[in-house]
Design goal:
It is globular, with a radius of gyration of 18 Å. Strand 1, helix 1 and strand 2 form a beta-alpha-beta unit. The protein has 9 helices and 9 strands. By secondary structure, the chain is an alpha/beta fold. It has one domain: NAD(P)-binding Rossmann-like Domain (Rossmann fold, 3-Layer(aba) Sandwich), CATH 3.40.50.720.
C-alpha cells in the first residue's frame, strides 16, 4: 500500500515544496488549503494527490478534516497552515490577529493531538509542526502576535515530543523553525522589506530529512543556526530591542 502524507497550507511556499519532494519519494498526498483552484493545479502537476479544500481557521472546517483523517491510512502529517502580520500593535487589525492566533495556535494544537492519537492507532508515523525561528527568540516588536504564536508552537512541540520519547511512542514529533524563507508570507504579513531568505525548496528538503531522523527542533540554514545559538548568551532585553529594529524595517511605509 502506498504511503500517504497529509500537508496543510499546501497551496504555496514550504507546504508546496514539501509536497513536491514527498511526491518524488513515492508518497500519495492529501493537499489541504483554502484555494481550490490552486490545489487542483498542484494535484494535476504532481499526480497521485487528492485535495481537501478547507479554511482551518474555521472550527467546522477543522472538524470536517478531523473526521476525514480517521478514514485515511497516512504516515506523515505536516502542520503547515499559518500566517503572520507586521505592524504597530496598537494599530494592527484585531480580527486578523484573532484569525492568526486561531490558525497558528489552536488549529495546530488540535491537529497535533488528534493526529498523534490516529498515528498511534496506525502503529506510528511523523508529525511536523511548522513554527519559525521567531519561536526560539524573545518577542519581536512590530510582529508581537506572530512571535507569540510561534513561541507557543515551539514550546508545545518540545514538551509533547519529550512525552512521546519517554513513553516510547511510535509517533515522532518535530518542529521546523526556519528564519526568512522566500514565500508568499511577506505579502500576507504586510511586509515591504524582508531579510534575504533561503529558498522554500531548501527549507523543505532539509526539514523532511531531519524529520525522518526524528530530530525535534529543526533550524535550516547555517546563519540562522548561529543566530539561534548566540542568542542564548545575550540578555533578553537586548534581543527584543534588536528584533524590534529589524522588524520595523519591514513595515510598509503607509503603516508607519
Amino acid at each position: 500500500m502506498k504511503k500517504i502524507a497529509v500537508i496543510t497550507g499546501a497551496s504555496s511556499g514550504i507546504g508546496f515544496a514539501m509536497a513536491k519532494i514527498l511526491s518524488n519519494q513515492g508518497y500519495g498526498l492529501v493537499l489541504v488549503a483554502r484555494r481550490e483552484k490552486r490545489l487542483q493545479e498542484i494535484a494535476k502537476t504532481l499526480g497521485n494527490s487528492q485535495i481537501f479544500v478547507a479554511d482551518l481557521s474555521n472550527e467546522a472546517e477543522c472538524v470536517r478534516l478531523e473526521d476525514f483523517l480517521k478514514s485515511v491510512d497516512f504516515e506523515i502529517f505536516i502542520n503547515n497552515a499559518g500566517f503572520g502580520d507586521c505592524g504597530n500593535f496598537l494599530e494592527s487589525d484585531l480580527e486578523k490577529e484573532k484569525s492568526m492566533i486561531t490558525l497558528n495556535i489552536w488549529t495546530l494544537h488540535r491537529f497535533t493531538k488528534a493526529v498523534a492519537q490516529i498515528l498511534e492507532r496506525h502503529g506510528g508515523g511523523f508529525i511536523l509542526n511548522v513554527a519559525s525561528s521567531a519561536g526560539l527568540l524573545p518577542g519581536g516588536p512590530y510582529m508581537a502576535t506572530y512571535y507569540a504564536t510561534k513561541a507557543y508552537v515551539t514550546s508545545l512541540s518540545l514538551a509533547v515530543a519529550r512525552e512521546f520519547k519517554e513513553k516510547q511512542s511510535p509517533v515522532s514529533l518535530s518542529c521546523l523553525c526556519p528564519g526568512p524563507v522566500d514565500t508568499e508570507f511577506n505579502q500576507v504579513a504586510n511586509v515591504e522589506f524582508a531579510l534575504p531568505g533561503i529558498s522554500a525548496e531548501f527549507c523543505a528538503a532539509y526539514a523532511l530529512k531531519q524529520m525522518f531522523r526524528r530530530k525535534t527542533i529543526i533550524v535550516p540554514g547555517f546563519m540562522m543556526k548561529l543566530a539561534v545559538f548566540f542568542a542564548r548568551f545575550l540578555p533578553r532585553k537586548l534581543l527584543v530591542a534588536i528584533a524590534g529594529r529589524q522588524q520595523k524595517k519591514k513595515i510598509k511605509k503607509s503603516n508607519v
